[in-house]
Amino acid sequence: MIRVLIADDQGMVRTGFTVFLSGQPDIEVVGEAADGREAVERAAELSPDVVLMDVRMPVMNGLEATRELMARQGTAKVLILTTFDLDDYVYEALRAGASGFLLKDASAAQLAEAVRVVAAGEALIAPAITKRLITEFARMGAPRPVTGRRLDELTERETEVLSLVAQALSNQEIAEKLYVAEQTVKTHVGRVLMKLGLRDRAQAIVFAYETGLVRPGE
């Protein structure tokens, strides 16, 4: 069972998500939180696998709550709830440790699938959000100094896989592009994360752009 904590300051949103997710055979809603501070406290108490985290909440916003959750080295994955058209914090959310983004107008089926994807350690970043993220990297200009030793630990194939992950391609899409089995791609991705000390694909995307391995427009 995938244990889920729902953090949103709107009671109707929490109730709607809870009702639907509780009806899934592999998902259990273990708690709710009305603000970021409560989300951090409830996560420490309940040890969920996934936290559905709204950003605009009182007391402590979702970005601050995500940073604190990650600083505590918890095992929970954070799935950011966003209205996208109004929210300009995609990059900040990834830096804070978020594993994915879910539009608040997503369907019930998309909600359940998003929870499963993030719980499995995959990054959930829609193409439109990826474009915004790349725009932010372009605005930042020059990349941070590349840590050669860390990148040198990757094989040529692993480096190639990382660059494709940074373009938000799925394992299946990478496998088709490289003419290899999907399981082979999963193995490469796992090794990349381990060698670079990254938690998931979302962090890998940030790493690839920040170090200049991949540049906007390539």
The name CATH uses for the topology of the largest domain is Rossmann fold
Taken as a percent bin, the fraction of beta residues is 5-15%
Helices, by number, come to 11
Low-confidence stretches: none
Q: Characterize the overall form.
A: globular
Report the strand count: 5
The SS-based structural class is alpha/beta
Please give the oligomerization state of what you see.
single chain
Pfam families: GerE, Response_reg
Protein name: DNA-binding response regulator
Domain HTH luxR-type: 147-212
GO molecular function: DNA binding
Descriptive notes:
The protein is of the alpha/beta class and 218 residues long. The protein has two domains: 2-124, Rossmann fold (3-Layer(aba) Sandwich), CATH 3.40.50; 142-210, Arc Repressor Mutant, subunit A. It has eleven helices and five strands, in the order E-H-E-H-E-H-E-H-E-H-H-H-H-H-H-H. It has helices spanning 11-22, 36-46, 62-71, 90-96, 108-119, 127-140, 148-152, 156-165, 171-178, 182-196, 201-210; strands at 2-7, 27-33, 50-54, 77-82, 100-103. Helix 3 (62-71) runs parallel beside helix 4 (90-96), helix 8 (156-165) crosses helix 10 (182-196) and helix 9 crosses helix 10. The longest helix is centred in the C-terminal third of the chain and has 15 residues, at 182-196. The model has no long low-confidence stretch (mean pLDDT 82). One of its GO terms (biological process) is regulation of DNA-templated transcription. Residues 3-119 form the Response regulatory domain. One of its GO terms (molecular function) is DNA binding. It holds the Pfam family GerE.
